[in-house]
Amino acid sequence: MRAQRTIKNEISFEGIGLHTGKLARVTLKPAARDTGVIFIRTDKPMVIKAYVGSVIDTAFATTIGQNGIKIRTIEHLMAALAGLGIDNIYIEVSGPEIPILDGSSTELISIILRAGIAKQGKKRPYLRIKRPFAFEDGHSKIVAFPYMGSRITYRISFNHHGIGEQKISLDINEESFAREIAPARTFGFLKDIEYLRTNGLAKGGSLENAIILGENGILNSTGLRFPDEFVRHKVLDSIGDFSLLGFPIYGHIIASKSGHSSNVKFLQKLLASPDSWDITLEAEEKISRSPALQINL
Q1: What DSSP assignment string belongs to 233-274?
Q2: Which of 63, 74, 79, 281 could make an S-S bridge to 239, C-beta 3.0–4.6 Å?
Q3: 176 pLDDT exceeds 80?
């Protein structure tokens, strides 16, 4: 079982928010063990712990907040932290939204690695799935199974010839996250952009930070980074959302047509079902799995 981790050095970056279009500066700072991930709005100021109980909005992004102060679109940064196993960190933000950068977590991983990773002298607890747990929310379905590791299987289906149905299944570790998931960019449809902007969203969106699909296909001249980049980005979002549990999940998450809202509801329901999981420092111990445990996506 690994030790807790933080970053070695303070580091900053800045950029515009995908939805607000506002410029913000973000500073990552080391934190003591057992601190968790703490966001700080430096322009208000307000301290908000990254936890499922802090989520106040899941419309087109995951937003945390408290007393009317919010920080929008935290999922890509949360995914980068979770993917690299950063458990304790302070995140100072000078505005209402985390910068979108290129729409993926690749630049965020580079920033964290430049700051350096420091091991801390205390073991990191895991949330271990002990028995199958299923959650359905409309067309979305998420099931957690016992598994000797951390694995995600994800399926999406869009009525657009540029996406269609895509599915991916992989064990999640630092290497697989950085190589297979982090580069996948957020995406949207050209027909929806006017509606989003009318409702105060996607003000900072562009072909530089999102994949945009028109009626005839992808508008980005650079094309896709993966043939199935869309489902990979959904996995990225889910890793960021699931990290709001406060513990890494030791189990196999299988999701179909899930988004930010269903991800957060799944976490809430899971926490309310303690017979399905336990908190352990011994996640490497073998867990018996029945070959009959299956789900049709």
Answers
A1: HHHHHHHHHHGGGSS-EEEEEEEES--HHHHHHHHHHHHT-G
A2: 79
A3: yes
CATH number of 3-123: 3.30.230.20
Q: What is the pLDDT of residues 36-47, one digit of tens each?
A: 999 999 999 999
Instruction: Please list the active-site residues.
Output: 260
The structural domains of the chain, with segments of one domain joined by +, span 3-123, 126-280
Question: What is the C-alpha end-to-end distance of the chain, expressed in Å?
Answer: 32
Q: How far apart are CA 45 and CA 42, in angstroms?
A: 5
What pLDDT does residue 197 have?
A: 85
Q: What is the distance between the alpha carbons of residues 156 and 140, in angstroms, rounded to a whole number? A: 10
Task: Supply the pTM of this predicted model.
Answer: 0.93
> CATH top-level class for 126-280?
alpha beta
